[in-house]
Known about the structure:
Blueprint: H1 8-18, E1 19-20, E2 24-25, H2 27-43, H3 49-66, H4 77-86, H5 98-120, H6 129-138, H7 146-155, H8 162-169, H9 173-200
Antiparallel strand pairs: 1-2
Helix pairs in contact: 1-2, 1-9, 2-3, 3-5, 5-6, 5-9
Amino acid sequence: MSVTKFDLQKVHERFNESLSGEDDVYVDQYLEAFKELYKFFQLMGTVFGFVSSDVKEKVEILEKLRAKENAESFLTIRTMMEYERDSNLLNKKDYVSGSRTLLRLHRGLDFIQEFLKRIGELEADGKTNGVCQAAYNDTLAQFHPWIIRKGANVAMYALPTRDQLLEKVCLDVSVAIDLLPEMLAVTRKVYDRTQDLYTKYDLHGLP
């Protein structure tokens, strides 16, 4: 089954829409942005196999929580954290925590935004494998066991030049390059807000 191309504009719009008030993030729009990012991982093929299946699973878990009778409790990242904390659900054995699930997406977002930022700094014919390895090792790798880190770094050797990569995954390379700084600025704002919420509620260490 062919995957439709990755739309950077859509990621930008959905993450922008997810910003709630001064310090919160709407879950639905956050997940919509991530579903678009999932296309990016899929289009990259086996290189990002170590993260794409995990993203799909985590998005589906959170969508199910948003479809339950108490969906309002999961409207924003803040309401979700407060609800799970106040209901003593964060360490409940038979409960799949939304806060824990989103933490995995949050860590993945750190990697993808760092990778795209470094891609944007390359020349058209610049090799992307080194910047991908550096972005991964600086972010997501710290949460992965050695065997996954090793496999991921080996797979990244096969990555092409900047423009070859963008042509493979994006609807329009020139539009993607122009929009990238704006999209990354919004993504960073979403990431920072989410990071602050995990710090405020002391949830970075969820198992």
